[in-house]
Amino acid sequence: MIEHLPALMVAVPLFGAFIAPLFKKHYKGVSMWAVVITGSTVILSLLLAKEVVTNGIMVYVFGADKPSIVLPSGYAVPIRIMFEVDAMGAFMAISATLMSFVGAIYSYTHVKKETGLEKYYALLMLLETGILGMVLTGDLFNLFVFLEIAGIAGSALVGFRNYRGEASEAGIKYLIVSAVASLMVLFAVAILYGQYGNLNLAYIAKNISFNMVDMIALGLLFTSFAMKCGAVPMHYWVPDAYTEVPAGINPPLLVATYASLYALFRVSFTLFANIVIDLARVGWIMSILGVLTMFIGVTMALVQKDVKRLMSYHAISQTGYMLLGVGVGLTVLHDPSKLAEFGRDAMAGGVFHIINHIIYKSLLLMTAGALFYVTGTRNLNEMGGLARKMPITTISFIVGAAAISGLPPFNGFASKLLIYETSYRLNPLLTVFAMVTSVLTLASFVKVFASAFLGPPLEKFQDKREVPTPMVIAMLILAVLCILFGLFPNIVLDKLVYPAVDALINFAQYHSWGGLA
Amino acid sequence: MSFTLTTPSGFWNPLLWLIFLVLFTIVAYLIYSRGNPSYKKESDQVKPYLSGNIEPTKEKVQVKAGDIYWGFIEALKGYYTVLQTMHTGDIRDYILWYLGVGAIITFILIGGV
Fold this sequence. Notes:
The complex is a heterodimer of chains A (517) and B (113).
Chain A: H1 5-19, H2 27-55, E1 58-61, E2 82-85, H3 87-110, H4 117-136, H5 140-158, H6 165-196, H7 201-207, H8 212-228, H9 237-244, H10 250-271, H11 279-302, H12 307-331, H13 336-375, H14 391-404, H15 411-426, H16 428-453, H17 469-487, H18 489-505, H19 507-512
Antiparallel strand pairs in A: 1-2
Helix pairs in contact in A: 1-2, 1-4, 2-3, 2-4, 3-4, 3-10, 3-13, 3-17, 3-18, 4-5, 4-10, 5-6, 5-10, 6-8, 6-9, 8-10, 9-12, 10-12, 10-13, 11-12, 11-16, 12-13, 12-15, 12-16, 13-14, 13-15, 13-17, 13-18, 14-16, 14-17, 15-16, 15-17
Chain B: E1 5-7, E2 10-12, H1 14-33, H2 58-61, H3 70-75, H4 77-86, H5 91-109
């Protein structure tokens, strides 16, 4: 079974999605089905990660007599759809499956009053399929296909509460933005296919000549994935989408966004890694986008009154840290001394921040969902004194807020520390922006804490109670992860993050494992 | 199992931080325990002193989220005016920004800068 793990990673949630409509009018049945399917994918992703970290890159060829046969007899180039899983892909797969699982648990009660839940859960599992396909594939066209699956499922989920005008509007905006970005990705893929006659990432990376047409393709891919991951100034769709989507979908939607970030890294490090002179330029573009993203995101968050919108702007802001960390590494990728001195650690900070952010931001968005569930409003001006009524939500919020602000010993601290230290070595100004952003992040969460949870207990919330158990469990799982990842950063870094970073740095290994060595 | 994370310029040990937190909590508790023992929660002692005026409702005395950081936002009014003008909510603008940034990045990558 182990050799079929890459295919199962996509097949299991896809099967789950196709079966879900059969549970029409049985919301408990479909909810449990989604929990079982997403839970199974967590186990599969852990097995996959273990296999990849132990035995190296895993290649899976669809339709071959044996899935490891890359080149059928008589062929000099790979012709079939191929998954190529390295440690970075496995790292993203764990993030995706874990967040889909937590999202399914949280949704169990959060959306039980909604109609069309069989569609909701089918879309949730399709979203997971799309994300997993994006992070596991070794084929450019396949990447586009899964990007589309994730984009369409995501936009349908954003507009799920279609009785709300804002949700429908946000869903359509997300759909259009996704479609435009995906079409440009398709255009770039066509450019590369036209030149090299192949869609395999490793094959193109080995043969690419970096002429002007290739660089246009890089520009298109870079910008499209940057927009899909919410980099400023192409972030406008993010607050709309994250605010309107049901809180149980926020975690997988966050991972869907970071699947695009993964694609940005994959394109920069794997496909175009051999551009020796221009790669530093690409790295600087990524770092500058990162600084803009973190600073503008946090300053916009500070003025928000809608709790979910505020947190959505923070999601944008935190993406900036990842772009900055990995951008610093990309800038010095072809300078071995600087790479060893700080480049690798900068990338570790950026990649570690991905999983940290997915955990604490999902937690925070879930606490925002819990506030909405109890009070019926997302307006912070109308809340107050809820700490006594919702003690577990309050503690979860404090943990999440401390983690996102980079307070020790929560998980955000370790990754931010790595980013601060290493970006300083490239340019101290980058660190100044990163640290100011952290201060402003803490300030805006103090605002949420003071206005929603502290203060005198308001009369209109006298009869309110804590949210139901499944929502509490989902929040507690993430709160515990925030603490564990903060207390044992070494374990996560050594077992998951550094292997992922090394997989990006050692791009030659990925190229040769395409069966082309 | 090592708790110490070695970074390029130093190290970070969450365990040391936890020990500090525990000590800090003990000191805080000691200060708290020396407080006035005659304080009673279920009495008029909890009411604010308002020179005999009637206490306003909780809703009225609550500090609203919109009031927090008023000074900061007022001081950066110019910056926020520009920033909020950029956030039009119009999907056509979203696409224009994407095309604009895409053109700049591609221009830089093909060696224009």
